[in-house]
Amino acid sequence: VEVKIEVVIPEKERSKEEMSPNGKASPLIYKVNGTARHYHLEEHPIASNPYHNPKDVVEASVCHVKDLENGQMREVDLGCGKALLIKESGEFHAVGHKCPHYGAPLVKGVLSKGRVRCPWHGACFNIGTGDIEDFPGLDSLPRFQVKIEKEKVYIRASKQALQTQRRTKMMAKCISLSNYNLSSTNVLIIGAGAAGLVCAETLRQEGFSDRIVMCTMDRHLPYDRPKLKKCLFLQSMDSHPEQIALRPKEFFRTYDIEVLTEMQVAAVDIKNKIAVFKDGFKMEYNKLLIATGNTPKALSCKGKEVENVFNIRTPEDANRVVKLATSKNVVIVGASFLGMEVAAYLAERAHSVSLVELEEVPFKKFFGERVGRAVMKMFESNRVKFYMQTEVSELREQEGKLKEVVLKSGKVLRADVCVIGVGAVPATGFLKQSGVNIDSKGFIMVNKMMQTNIPGVFAAGDAVTFPLALRNNKKVNVPHWQMAHMHGRIAALNMLAHGMEISTVPYLWTAMFGKSIRYAGHGEGFDDVVIQGDLDELKFVAFYTKSDEVVAVASMNYDPIVSKVAEVLAAGRMIRKRDVETGDMSWLTGKGS
């Protein structure tokens, strides 16, 4: 038997191209404020025969058919690039071998029921189409057609696809802008983070071709905030925001997604469907997505306005901190994810790094005391000094610039730079008189379809609480990058009346001193932690339990256990405490209790 692989357009996308003789889709109709508007899908740049240029094609023999058993994956080399060969339920599939998000090798991921999950950050891809099904990341995998001939496996693929290892799904373009004035749009998205961008892209992918406007207080087009927060962006002193942009400028022009930068919405008139901006500009909308994220908390102590005190929120903040901190004394207030990640990055660059925290152990509420102490020990071995169970009482200056940080314990710390990481609050103040339901903490309350209590108004991302299926539909706030992506997609699908409910498993990661902690589930309120492995060696997996049920998992140097657990939870299977206490991992395959 012989297996051949060639790049093809997924059936769903090819059908869109073949709907009319001229290669374009038949016109669709979408009603905007009662007026029917016609639009076409953009003609896809790849024809139905992807090999119109023979020089772009490579074919190579990679293995014998019997080399792969059901449920196995293999990374195969074609000379000019690699592909991921998969066998499941007796059928062969082939897709790109790298996760388009950060380039993780998918062969080390988890294969389950027609999809492969990234071992690093949990993104999921359909093995039959290559389409992204869970996040983070924006692009899908290139899919290669598999054919069986004789008993050798051959792969035939486009060199370009093998080199890029990513595929942007086909999208519609707006052809009705002339029907609008500047102050009117069909879809208005407030916020340009992951939730807002994925919402806009999903609308276009689903064939929506009316006007989409995104507005943001930022100076920049949507960018990869985790790279900013986790200090990956800071590795170059002369970095530019374009280097961490989620999409280039040309993408927004090509697909007619308008982005208004440095534009802050001050109020929303729900009755008349009008957003009022801080500068007085007003914009009418038909559908609204609120994805404003959160605002960092500030210190309330004396001297809080002193120069060289930062909340890292923008690329400019990040570069400024690195420049000022190099060979200087740094004080970080708050052992939050941001505080700890910044401390880890600056430890090798600053003269000293001190971290002030009200709790007795970092991450105690999130990872538990034992994991928190292990992480704290790692930091201390890397020259980070902790001042726990205390707060800042004063920031002292000399000639207008920060000189010292005074703690309530009486300790005085030398400081040239101070980074604040004491948490954040939802950026929803502008909605207080709008009629949109907001809880006592300022979070927007939505249902499983990301709908607010107001028809046509949706909300997504860090500023919302939503029913989490994993925890019996408990209303939760999950301020993670992956979850913001999914919120945006669900909101877009329901703007188009798809009736789609959110059911994803939360997944996050943090990187410190070259080591990563991965986490899946929702451990809020856990009452015990079961540890497997060695905390002292920083090679462990921690299972967070509530009563007899595992509700979350974290690991370090234990890949791909977190992705495996995420797949079990996504399948709706319960993991019991006794299953993980015994060390028997049969439950991962569904053979245990």
Automatic annotation (TrEMBL):
InterPro entries with a match to the protein in the record: FAD-oxidoreductase/Apoptosis (IPR050446), FAD/NAD-bd_sf (IPR036188), FAD/NAD-binding_dom (IPR023753), FAD/NAD-linked_Rdtase_dimer_sf (IPR016156), Reductase_C (IPR028202), Rieske_2Fe-2S (IPR017941), Rieske_2Fe-2S_sf (IPR036922)
Location of this chain's protein in the cell: Mitochondrion
Span of domain Rieske: 60-155
Entry keyword set: 2Fe-2S, Apoptosis, Electron transport, FAD, Flavoprotein, Iron, Iron-sulfur, Metal-binding, Mitochondrion, Oxidoreductase, Transport
GO BP of this protein: execution phase of apoptosis
Spans through the membrane: none
Name of one Pfam family that matches: Pyr_redox_2
GO molecular function, one term: metal ion binding
GO CC annotation terms, alphabetical: mitochondrion
Function: Induces apoptosis through a caspase dependent pathway. Reduces mitochondrial membrane potential.
Classification via PANTHER family: APOPTOSIS-INDUCING FACTOR 1, APOPTOSIS-INDUCING FACTOR 3
Family: Belongs to the FAD-dependent oxidoreductase family.
Name of protein: Apoptosis-inducing factor 3
